[in-house]
Structures are given as C-alpha cells and as structure tokens.
C-alpha cells in the first residue's frame, strides 16, 4: 500500500491552494507558518486533495518550489516540524538528514521526539502521565514511541516547565493506575449525552465547575473514545 509520504502530489487548483493557505497561520517572529489544520495518526499535518491525504509540509514544499519531493524527506531549517513556510523547507535524503543533524547538534531530525513534538505537547504529555494515563496510550495519541514518551515524562527531553497548575493537578487516573482516584461519576458526566455537543475544553471546564477536578482535554478525548475508563458504562 502506498504511504501518504510518497504519493505523487497532483497539481492543485486555485481552490485547493486556497484551502491549503487558509490552514497555515500567519508568520511568527521567526517567519514560521505553522500548520493549523488536521493531523494524521502520526501527528503530521495532513491535507485532503481529491479525496486523498497528503502531508502538509510536502504540499508546502511542492507549492513553494514546484517540485514533488518524491522519496526525499522534507527538512526544516527552523527546527519547527509543523512549519509550512516554503523558505524554511528543503528536500533531502535520509543520509543528508543525518549529516545535517551531526553538523547541527541542536537540530533534531524528524524521527527524534524533540522534533516531532512541541513544548506545549510535552507539557500535555506530562499532565496526562500525572493523570495516570498509560504511556502506551499517550504514545499512540501523539504518534511517537512509548520510549519517547517515557523520556519526556522523565524530563530527558524538553524542559520541565514549573507549571504551578501541575502541582495541584488532582489524580484523575485511568483504570489500573496505582494512584487512581477512581471517580466513575466524572467519567459518566463526561460521556453524558448532553455533553456530546461540547468541545473538549468546555467539558473540562464543566468538570472543574462540578467536581473541582482538573482534567486535561486529552484525557476527556480518551474518555469519550473509551480508550480509558472502559469499564464505566
Ligand atoms: Zn519555519
């Protein structure tokens, strides 16, 4: 089965180009333009063209240069894996990528957890760990390995932000977690049909209001998908 990486990118119509550019943010102070649209299961920005999915950074490169990157990897000069600014992108082989990383120790390749995730995501990963979500489930959500999640949780990647909120995060633990403060009522509340139309952050706010417990939006997502707390009907 062809992977989305290497599927040839078709010529985009003006309307399709428009859809692409609407999904990238305005340049930040580094000139980076982050992808704001959908992500695939591996955490890469993805754009549907003619009912097929293409990685956003590959489409960005294609639009900027007119060349399909083919089997090449897309490299970021800005070390910002979601950036779709054509000037920050180049196409390279795995070997060039490795050489580049050797010559630029601060630059992390796209297989490196540091490069695949943002600081905000790392904070979220640690919050989920605090809430007792199993590392495997977190890894799956972020599309990285359990080992990478484990390193982030231990503070080997990304700085540990001294977030005062984290200190008083109540343990809203998933099943089987030793620190579990099981609260079936909260899980039922999250899944209550009336909550169905609400966004995850709105549900989180209601849980906080109702139960005085902070639950991350990721945890709410996992509860709704029944990836955790499966035993609660
Ligand atoms: Zn950039």
Largest sheet: 2 strands, antiparallel
Beta-strand segment tally: 4
User: Beta-strand level of the residues, as a percent range?
Assistant: 5-15%
pLDDT < 50 runs, ≥5 residues: 1-5, 106-111, 162-182
| Helix and strand sequence | HEEHEEHHHHHHHHH
| Overall average pLDDT | 76
- Ligands present: zinc ion
Helix-and-strand structural type: mainly alpha
Number of H/I helices: 11
Radius of gyration: 20 Å
Percent range for helical residues?
25-40%
Strand order of the largest sheet: 1-2
Total domain count? 2
Shape annotation = globular
N/C terminus separation: 38 Å
Please outline what is shown here.
The protein is mostly helical. 40% of the residues lie in helices and 7% in strands. A hairpin with a 2-residue loop joins strand 1 (46-49) and strand 2 (52-55).
